[in-house]
Write a structure and sequence with these properties.
Blueprint: H1 10-16, H2 18-21, H3 30-35, E1 55-61, H4 75-79, E2 84-86, E3 102-104, E4 112-115, E5 120-123, H5 127-130, E6 136-143, H6 149-158, H7 168-176, E7 186-189, E8 213-215, H8 238-257, H9 262-285, H10 292-297, H11 306-320, E9 325-330, H12 348-368, E10 375-380, E11 384-389, E12 396-399, E13 403-409, E14 416-418, E15 420-421, E16 428-430, E17 433-434, H13 435-445, E18 455-457, E19 460-462
Parallel strand pairs: 1-9, 1-10, 6-14, 6-17, 7-8, 7-9
Antiparallel strand pairs: 2-3, 4-5, 6-13, 10-13, 11-12, 15-16, 18-19
Helix pairs in contact: 1-8, 11-12
């Protein structure tokens, strides 16, 4: 048997094991080092059109709050409470298992009252948010795809119920980059690992550098948002500098040997960014510099509001530091997401107590810091809930046919309500707004034309809104 000569030079050996040995580095790629260009592929880019906002904070209410118990009061539910009425669902709901058959109408257990100069109705579940009602633009004619949490959550984040597609945060990163080269463009705080998991903040076929960076995971508590692998020690020492320089030389060689390798470039860039994050990110996530008044505004240290309050404050600090898209998840990793009350609807009060004050505090804090003018706050879920009792029980089933989402901030028409559901709150009948329309509108507010933000993959151009979606002009300020 002839044994081939496998001798290689030390330089070639380093190149061959670059994916392992090179992963210790946080270095710039060759082209940037030679040109003296410190920008990365996440460098901030000017939006192609006039932007009304620079960033988005998405407050994801996992599980689906009931619109008829929160922001869309229906007196007819009280009039028909307990009566069996037909509901002509366009599709079978998740667990009710009935279409066009009689279901028992269930009134809301919570009272509604008018608030603000706009005089809009808000459930007693949200006393703090009610004080900010004039900042909100309610979209009450929402409808979407998917009747179960998995596909509907994927559609909310990625615009598709089954195909692997980039999340909206990844699209924003791809279209605009980050405003702070020391931080990612897209951060997700305490995301849930269920119902799509990492696909909800994934990059799919976009360059890997645009994947969201998760800080902590749902159900692990606020301490999980600490960056345990970025202690910041040694980053500014002479030894740290020598490590950085060595890593850069290794990555220069790796980049030279593998030009155009997007995954390798993303790995290199991720470690380079991790190097810079050692000196910047821990301070941003540390609330110690905030005043006691600010912490109290978010409900930090107050039992039920502490965890979500910390997430909302972290979102403000990240946006203030230049992150383009911050997703804040109120959720968990169980089979029954937080707002998913198929039975025991009164548990909505538990989730409202945990989120109401932090959300209102975020809006107030953004307003007083001058950040609300160019930050879009998006509150919503994968779908709403039915006006009838599920299986004649004490909860409500999934309802993708009609529900409420709200926006506030940069470029959004404050104090306005767009659309409506029918008399019982079952289906959207006026100002019908598809999830693709909402996605198109959010991109528009950021100065991006949703039809032109495309990426060629598998022989065709893809976009977040696929072949649908229209900007909701009525909600623009």
């Amino acid at each position: 048997m002839n044994i081939p000569d496998v001798r290689v030079s030390r330089r070639e050996a380093l190149a061959r094991v670059g994916c392992g040995f090179g992963s210790v580095a946080m270095a710039a790629m060759l082209g940037r080092a030679r040109a003296g260009d410190t920008r990365s592929s996440l460098a901030a880019m000017a939006p192609p059109a006039r932007a009304r906002a620079r960033r988005v904070i998405f407050l994801f209410m996992q599980g689906g709050p009931s619109h008829v118990d929160t922001f869309d009061p229906k007196p007819a539910l009280a009039r028909h409470d307990g009566q069996t009425m037909p509901f002509d669902d366009a599709r079978t709901m998740a667990n009710t298992g009935a279409r066009g058959t009689g279901q028992r109408v269930m009134k809301s257990p919570w009272a509604f009252s008018r608030h603000g100069e706009s005089g809009r109705w808000v459930s007693e579940l949200f006393p703090h948010t009610a004080r900010r009602i004039d900042d909100l633009c309610l979209l009450q004619g929402m409808h979407t795809e998917g009747v179960a949490h998995g596909p509907a959550t994927l559609f909310l984040h990625c615009g598709s119920t089954n195909f692997v597609r980039p999340s909206i945060g990844a699209w924003v990163s791809y279209g605009l980059g980050t405003e702070n080269d020391n931080l990612p463009a897209f951060v997700t705080l305490s995301p849930s690992l269920g119902n799509g998991g990492a696909r909800n903040w994934g990059h799919a076929f976009l360059p890997p550098v645009h994947q969201g960076t998760p800080f902590g995971f749902a159900g692990q508590g606020p301490d999980s948002m600490r960056l345990r692998w970025l202690p910041g020690e040694g980053a500014d020492t002479a030894m740290g500098r020598r490590r950085f320089d060595l890593a850069r030389r290794i990555h220069e060689e790796q980049a030279r040997m593998s030009p155009g390798d997007a995954e390798a470039d993303a790995v290199i860039e991720s470690f380079e960014r991790a190097w810079r994050m050692q000196s910047h990110a821990p301070a941003i996530l540390d609330h110690g510099s905030e005043t006691a008044e600010t912490r109290a505004l978010y409900g930090i240290g107050e039992g039920p509001t502490d965890e979500f309050g910390r997430q909302c404050l972290a979102a403000r600090r990240l946006c203030e530091a230049g992150v383009r898209f911050v997703q804040v998840t109120y959720g968990d990793n169980t089979a029954n997401p937080r707002w998913d009350q198929h039975s025991d609807l009164p548990r909505h009060a538990v989730h409202a107590r945990a989120t109401d004050k932090p959300v209102a505090g975020l809006l107030a804090d953004l307003r007083r810091r001058g950040l609300l003018d160019d930050t879009v706050v998006w509150w919503g879920a994968e779908f709403g809930r039915t006006p009838y009792a599920e299986k004649n029980g004490t909860g409500r089933d999934h309802n993708p046919g009609g529900f409420t989402t709200w926006l506030a901030g940069g470029g959004v028409r404050a104090g306005y309500t767009h659309g409506a559901t029918d008399e019982l709150g079952h289906l959207a009948v006026e100002g019908r707004t598809h999830m693709h329309d909402l996605h198109a509108t959010l991109l528009h507010l950021l100065g991006i034309d949703h039809e032109r933000l495309t990426f060629r993959h598998d022989g065709r151009d893809h976009r977040l809104t696929d072949v649908r979606g229209e900007v909701i002009r009525a909600v623009l300020a």
